[in-house]
Amino acid sequence: MYNPLRPLISDEAFAYLREHGLLNERELRNYVIRRQFLEMRAQRVSAGDAIERLQQQYPDLEYDTIRKIVYRSAGQRRRVS
Length: 81
Prior knowledge:
By secondary structure, the chain is mostly helical. It has helices at 11-19, 25-42, 47-57, 63-71. The longest helix has 18 residues, at 25-42.
């Protein structure tokens, strides 16, 4: 099982959380998308090209949806109470 949160939590903890349905899968996907976008931008890929590449990886998401995911600031992210 791939752990996209490896820098933050161990594989065992990730597996446990996922196994027990304690992860928000959509937010996890969005985190991965944001991280991939930032990695591409660090390699000097234009923002538009990076979003298009991400759309190829996530064909179920519209270009505008991916744009909103990558540009959403930390203050706008959904907070869990």
